[in-house]
Amino acid sequence: MAEQHPPSSRPLKISMVIYPGAQCLDVTGPLEVFALANRQLRDDGLRIDNVYEIELLAEAAGPVPTSSGIKLFADKPYCDAGDMDTLLVCGGTDEGVKAQQENGDLIPWLHYCAPRVRRLGSICNGALILAGAGLLHGKRATTHWMDVPALQALGDIDVDPDAIYVRDGRIYTSAGITSGIDLALALVEEDCGRRLALKVARRLVLYLKREGGQTQYSAHLSSQVESDQFGQLIEWIYRNLAAPITVTRLAEMAAMSPRNFARCFLQETGMTPAKFVERARVEKSRQLLSEQSLPMEKVAVQCGFQSQEQLRRAFRRQMGVLPSDYRKHFNG
User: Fold this and answer.
1) CA dist 61 to 19, 57, 69, 104, 243, Å?
2) Is 303 tagged catalytic?
3) 70 lies in a domain?
4) Start and end of every HTH araC/xylS-type domain (predicted)?
5) What is the mean pLDDT of residues 110-128?
């Protein structure tokens, strides 16, 4: 896969709708991703100007109190917003969201903007505002796990309760709070490529793509490998660690001979395919050992090891300790 370069024309305008009771992190988290993308591109010498222009929109320009009491400053009223590339609606308190669902100015404005922006999205329970406007009808979507029943009650919406974020055409929805950052990273990857998104994730000390399931936490950064050529294949490996994974199978998926694939993979990632798969399996076992009380045999099976002994050897080789000792240390 060829590296994607950032757009070279005028900046892409990212507009975020805020309102009294907005969740501060729903706003600042995703927008920080776009700001850091600008900074990273300048640091890399790829841009001298910004690829993203960020603005806050509200019912009126000026300070807007958030759920934490912190005030955010809206740049302009949303009715005065001009052309936008991406329009996002943040989540907030139950009272704040309900007030916006009944806002006679915001709802018609969202209807007007929906077909005119390249991307329309929501953070956390901001999906309830989009749904209340009828913009998620017939769409697949997600929201904060606590608001799943409320979203399901708002019409013909295919609600995925475990997704970190969902894209359905031009509509994007993210799950609870910090998953808005995951969504923003995905949008940066769409616009500018995996390499930039990965660098931004590392700056934020985040995992570029978390597995589905809002109950899961970010995995270890050491599992992330910067690879444009094998990015999709690496994601497939992470999703299928419990299955048999051979060099022959991976080579077939990459449409290469096993020998050429092994050589190219080593050159691209700095490790052999076998070593990479083992490391990914150990990383997953670390997550399971620290977060769940599964028997060691089930940990081995879910991570793709043929036996507890194979898990034990690989874990000690990678981590320098036995998995049983790691679990005792992690769980106190």
Assistant:
1) 11, 7, 18, 18, 54
2) no
3) yes
4) 231-329
5) 96
Inside any domain, residue 90: yes
DSSP 23: -
Host domain of residue 296: 220-330
Would the pTM count as exceeding 0.70?
no
Tokens 């083992």 belong to 278
pLDDT at 328: 76
Question: CA-CA distance, 267 to 141, in Å (whole number)?
Answer: 39
- Do 39 and 188 share a domain, yes or no? yes
Describe the chain by its helix, strand, coil percentages, rounded to 5: 50, 15, 40
**Alpha-carbon separation of residue 2 from 149, 194, 208, 228, 249 (angstroms):** 42, 10, 19, 7, 22
SS (H, E, C) 90-105: CCECHHHHHHHHCCCC
Among residues 223, 225, 296, 230, the alpha carbon closest in space to that of 263 is found at 230
* Range in 138-142, 155-159, 199-203, 299-303 with the lowest mean pLDDT: 199-203
* 42 and 168 belong to one structural domain: yes
pLDDT tens-place string over residues 248-287:
999 999 999 999 999 999 988 888 999 999 989 998 898 8
Cβ proximity of 289 and 326 under 8 Å: yes
pLDDT of residue 243: 93
How far is 10 from 25, CA to CA, in rounded Å? 28
Residues 6+ apart with CB under 8 A from 246: none
Catalytic member of 24, 90, 124, 192: 124
Number of domains forming the structure of the chain: 2
What are the DSSP E strand ranges found in the chain?
12-17, 52-58, 62-65, 71-74, 76-77, 86-89, 119-122, 140-141, 158-159, 165-168, 171-174
Q: Considering the chain, what percentage of its residues have pLDDT values greater than 90?
A: 65
Assess whether 19 and 167 both reside in one domain: yes
